[in-house]
Amino acid sequence: MNRAETQAPPPEALTVVPLRHYGLWAGTAVTLVILGLILRALATNPAFDWPTVGKYLFHPSIIRGLGQTLVLTVTIMVLAIIIGTIVAIMRLSPSRILNAFASAYIWFFRGAPALIQLIFWFNLALIVREFSLTLPFVGTLFTVKTNDFMTPFVAAVVALSLHEAGYMAEIVRAGINSVASGQTEAAGSLGMNHRLILRRITLPQAMRFIVPPTGNETINLLKTTSLVTIIAVNDLLYAAQSIYARTFETIPLLIVVAFWYLFVVTILSIGQHYIEQYYGRSDQQQGVSWGGMLKRAFRFGRVAQPA
């Protein structure tokens, strides 16, 4: 050990110089300046017309349009989850026919733009003028014209449900594939059939991977429903358009629409956060093993005891 090392000053005598983040400071300053300019423009530009925004924020037509948008979103998402889950199971089936059909479904309904599908289903009467049920030796039981039941609302639900189901099928398939194959093999050794394994073992664990992208798809679907304006469904955007077509207050009405979309998206994001916590709670639990999970499934799954 040399002399310089033996005479080194104690740590408390050292001067600590903090690292200076000049780039971070500059970026923060620029961001604050831009934010200030945006707020100033929002507050001083008369084109935004904030009194008119407040006037129409809770207008009965706007509230009815918002309700229609929410009904569309819930209805379409429920149907998309059901159809998407069925298509995902078909996609994972060992049957080549089922697998090919599911693959073609996903390819087509994910690939075709949602707007084109909306217009197609709305004009279905140009292809099929009526639907009828005819039985041999009985005759025609009923006949209904396509225009009588393919209303703008029904066309929107059918088109966007089939479109969204293509995305949900891939989400569910990826979630199912995330579950280790050893768990299904162990469940099968306990006497469970494929349906029970899917309901008790695979899907509950796959939910951790299915819920986050499903929440994102729900939020995206909420905004996609604005496309139904093109076929005259009285949603939130259509209600605003009906008002500013008469009053020419375009910008204030669009601000009202944006406010309600942001409000609903915020509520959905909060709900998604708590649902993710619910399905991810097993990560914080100690002592949870595959064996314990299979025992609980075996106990409550009504599985016949092996001989």
What does this structure look like?
This protein is mostly helical. The protein is built from 13 helices and 2 strands, in the order ααααααββααααααα. It has a two-stranded antiparallel ribbon. β1 (about 130-135) and β2 (about 140-145) form a beta hairpin. The longest helix has about 30 residues, at about 60-90. About 25% of the residues are buried. Mean pLDDT is about 85; it is low at about 285-290 and about 300-305.
Can you describe this structure in just a few lines?
It is built from 13 helices and two strands, in the order H-H-H-H-H-H-E-E-H-H-H-H-H-H-H.
List keywords for this structure.
307 residues; mainly alpha; two-stranded antiparallel ribbon; 70% helix; 4% strand
Helix content: 55-70%
Helix and strand element order: HHHHHHEEHHHHHHH
What value does the average pLDDT take? Answer: 83
Sheet/helix structural class: mainly alpha
Main sheet: strand order? 1-2
Strand proportion: under 5%
Any idea what the radius of gyration is?
29 Å
Uncertain ranges = 286-290, 300-307
Helix/strand layout:
Layout: H1 3-6, H2 22-44, H3 50-56, H4 60-91, H5 96-111, H6 114-122, E1 130-135, E2 139-145, H7 146-149, H8 152-177, H9 181-189, H10 194-224, H11 236-247, H12 250-279, H13 290-300
Antiparallel strand pairs: 1-2
